[in-house]
Amino acid sequence: MAKLIHDSYGKSKVRLTKVTRNGDRHEIREMSVDIALQGDFERCYTHGDNASILPTDTMKNTVYALARDHPLTSIESFAMTLSEHFLKTVAHCTSSSIDISEVPWQRISVGGKPHDHSFIGGSNERRITRVVRSRDDVMIESGIDHMLVLKTTRSGFVGYIKDQFTTLKPTTDRIFATSVKALWQYNTADADWNANFNDIREVMIAVFAGQDSLAVQQTLYVMGAGALAACDAISEITLTMPNQHRLLVNLEPFGMDNPNEIFVPTDEPHGLIRGTVSRE
Amino acid sequence: MAKLIHDSYGKSKVRLTKVTRNGDRHEIREMSVDIALQGDFERCYTHGDNASILPTDTMKNTVYALARDHPLTSIESFAMTLSEHFLKTVAHCTSSSIDISEVPWQRISVGGKPHDHSFIGGSNERRITRVVRSRDDVMIESGIDHMLVLKTTRSGFVGYIKDQFTTLKPTTDRIFATSVKALWQYNTADADWNANFNDIREVMIAVFAGQDSLAVQQTLYVMGAGALAACDAISEITLTMPNQHRLLVNLEPFGMDNPNEIFVPTDEPHGLIRGTVSRE
Amino acid sequence: MAKLIHDSYGKSKVRLTKVTRNGDRHEIREMSVDIALQGDFERCYTHGDNASILPTDTMKNTVYALARDHPLTSIESFAMTLSEHFLKTVAHCTSSSIDISEVPWQRISVGGKPHDHSFIGGSNERRITRVVRSRDDVMIESGIDHMLVLKTTRSGFVGYIKDQFTTLKPTTDRIFATSVKALWQYNTADADWNANFNDIREVMIAVFAGQDSLAVQQTLYVMGAGALAACDAISEITLTMPNQHRLLVNLEPFGMDNPNEIFVPTDEPHGLIRGTVSRE
Amino acid sequence: MAKLIHDSYGKSKVRLTKVTRNGDRHEIREMSVDIALQGDFERCYTHGDNASILPTDTMKNTVYALARDHPLTSIESFAMTLSEHFLKTVAHCTSSSIDISEVPWQRISVGGKPHDHSFIGGSNERRITRVVRSRDDVMIESGIDHMLVLKTTRSGFVGYIKDQFTTLKPTTDRIFATSVKALWQYNTADADWNANFNDIREVMIAVFAGQDSLAVQQTLYVMGAGALAACDAISEITLTMPNQHRLLVNLEPFGMDNPNEIFVPTDEPHGLIRGTVSRE
Asked: Most exposed: B4, B40, C66, D93, by fewest CB within 10 Å?
């Protein structure tokens, strides 16, 4: 016989655009929301009894209804509101998880002046948050996904283990490109979400640019340490950094040198480095 | 000051095709391999000291070199070999994870006869495995990803919670479509991987087709229970099933009825149901 | 001053699922429809005058409404109906184009018996059609997209031009993998669309499997010639075949040979071969 | 019997990164190159005779070799060089087409100062060019792909045709979002490619922001007209603009109004508007 030992259900990819009209000056926030509930939903699995089930369609409606009255100045505050709502509405729900991923829109400049109601988008970078709330506790993580950075020098990789399958040559000067995913844990439920996000993002980019990198691992560590130093409101940060290799092309067969100028960007295979950094 | 509290590194998306030539009759296996190592790699993060680092480029080479001598009759056995190799090679590695995703190729039939060396592919379905090995232990999970199934009737959804945001109408007859991800845990390191995979896949499809579904949750549960009943070598199974909605089109504005015939398939938003089923 | 010299507008990616219920035995067709109209719509572009514009939202509704009464036994016949409708409805429309791409669903077998109402999908292969209708004429093209085929031998590439940038080695035995796009032109508006599709697909696969390929170009040509020979109702066929390279891995640095066994599949760069074959 | 009536072959997705080092100040250009040749290659198709075939692998090598000596200050000038090379190398080639798509990298600012060698990317927007060269002629087109713009007001759609399938309500205030593809034809082979690109892009964005749009078609037309007015070196421009709908959510069932604040962004279906604008 079979026993249900874990379960969760919800709605994913609820997309939302909210326009806030301060007179002629408009603000726009666009996002995708994922909702998941845990709790006593077992009879639905084992008996097809839906009496304990808030339909995922209703979850979708709830996102739009609550967005109407919410200022939506940050995805964190909206995720807090949503997570609270579902715990309140569904008595037998023990924990709600809200994931929000924000699509960036930048105000267009026309003749050097920021436009009132026109925006340009197109970046893959996302501001993200995850709020997990139980009856006693709330955990707030925020971060960045797909932040694509590259440096053309001040990155090397030497002194590593060699075995019978080693063909890689050591280098003291290579291109370093990566798509950063960062997720930091807040130690408070009442932070200045937008300012913190901007501070952490800025310091991570500056550290990436400024460091002489001896390994992707080392860069990951100093970026994480930099984020912790820049923001008291966070307790730890997890970084995931694929090594998006630019391979030096061998031009010798054509009688040419290649003084670190011509590279092939490749998507696969790629190195994948992860690390979590916390305060000492 | 900052402290590294978790780390892992490796190579992802190492793609491999192996052709086995039994005379004129060829076999093909194609896959993508992800490798991750955990262990004492801290000085690389904190000091840029690579003395403990086996380069991810070498991991890639290792996949090809070991594939040469390995029969590769199943992705599980190859993942076992890889996970063992890295623990043996890297003395300070405490745990290695190998994920393999197999790309399916079917033998072409010509005039009703299976062809010796020609194959047709194109399915998004993947056979997957994950082997996590420490110095004392090995954990083997296998599964299916992106198994897309649909039934045109014998699925309903009634009797759920109603609140102020409910607009969904109950239905006793809807289309049920989902892209199944299943991951089961083996209780042995020496199973007939291919036969088990085929048995579990077949029973899950048969259960999906045969059940009168009262909820996606219920179908998930009986598919999991079916898998456990069909294969003694597994101890538990986790299923993830998005509800890929087909929405009934309202044709009334055009003076038409719609007796469950015309639907819009939508990708987002979608329900997302997860559950883990184990033996009692 | 500026002049509009070409224009077209319409609705893309109108997704539709139609279930036909012959008693307990259900049929399913799923597709995505693109509509484009050409004609006298200039004042909309130059003056923002929409008096000549049938909204693209109405085009979407039309797809669902017409699908209700249409048997939808083939995408060709449905595209014919749609193309006719828009010419009739919009008096100043000179030409309508309908593109349909069908998502394949296979009936599930349970215990060797085809199931009445359960289906399995997941293939990227698509059956496609394009109907372009003017006031005097109709052009019907049909085809296949993303038909992924591979052979492990009987493919070579020798005797090509060598210049100062050549590094490729000739080979008489390589893997040949390609994702075929075929588009054939019908010489009639009243063919057995389904039978023709099946015949052409089958002969192209058989030719691919059976031929000793000296070049992708040559295989393309014999597949096209085979299609023309198999189906009197078509006048020409255009094939597009990327060469999805499987590169032989050099195992010599590891002291190993590689007798055409271990390959890396790569997506980019890829060869891209196109050709149109007609009757003499 | 079958006859080859059109053919073309080449290499696609040749990815290239070039770093130019002006002392400490580095420049980076990253791109993907597609090459296609037309000419007398028929015996390869009909007889598998490769004597006339420059391998696509050699085309790839050529991109890297020529990039070494080329300043690569614009994709247009590099495409010109490549197109010339292949016509010169392959005597029986009648026409070569080079398509280049450039991946954007922005210099990182640290403390308000542009960094010497660190860059941020991640935008889907692409600068593109196509150079088609025959023995007598060269055609140069350039453009932008995936330029994502949105305005929250000053867009309406009224006064359109109504028929039995119309359900759309007229609106004088909607969100207008689109992903612009623009391709303009140069009337010279010797323009300031970078300045022209920047001018045309800037004017199109300004027109989009500034116009009171009565239809996507009208906006397309004025953006095209604006480009022609801004740049004497181009003779015509083709714009493709999907209407990436933001649908107003009906909040009435929840007892709420929705004063143009809460929208659902949708990817499909979408309107698709095309137009070519030339000088009078």
From this structure: B40
Quick one: tokens of D30?
Answer: 């990253």
Classify residue D213 by its DSSP letter: B
Nearest residue, CB atoms, B5 vs list A41, A236, A272: A236
Cβ of A151 within 8 Å of Cβ of D61? The answer is no
Where in the sequence is the domain holding A16, given as residue range(s)? 9-136
B260 contacts in C (CB within 8 Å)? 19, 21
Catalytic residues of A: 11, 56, 245
Residue at a domain's end among A81, A103, A136: A136
Asked whether this complex has an ipTM greater than 0.85, the answer is yes
Residue D2 lies in a domain: no
Q: What is the CATH number of the domain that holds A169?
A: 3.10.270.10
Domain count, chain C: 2
Q: Which of A136, A168, A186 is the last residue of a domain?
A: A136
Size of interface A-B (CB pairs under 8 A): 258
Q: How many CA within 13 A on the CB side of residue A3?
A: 5
Q: What is the pTM of this model?
A: 0.98
Question: Domain check: are B217 and B117 in the same one?
Answer: no
Query: Does the residue D243 lie in any domain?
Result: yes
Tokens read off for C21: 């219920």
CA distance A31 to A101: 5
Residue D141 located in a structural domain = no
Residue pLDDT, tens place only, D128-159: 999 999 999 999 999 999 999 999 999 999 99
Residues 6+ apart with CB under 8 A from A28: A17, A18, A19, A20, A105, A119, D150, D152
**pLDDT tens digit string along C202-236?**
999 999 999 999 999 999 999 999 999 999 999 99
Phi, psi of B118 (to 5 degrees): -120, 140
Name the pairing type of β-strands A262-265 and A270-279.
Answer: unpaired
Judgement on whether residues B152 and B129 belong to the same structural domain of the protein: no
Residue B3 lies in a domain: no
Do residues D203 and D230 make contact, with C-beta atoms less than 8 angstroms apart?
yes
A residues 151..210 contacting B (CB < 8 A): 157-161, 163, 165-168
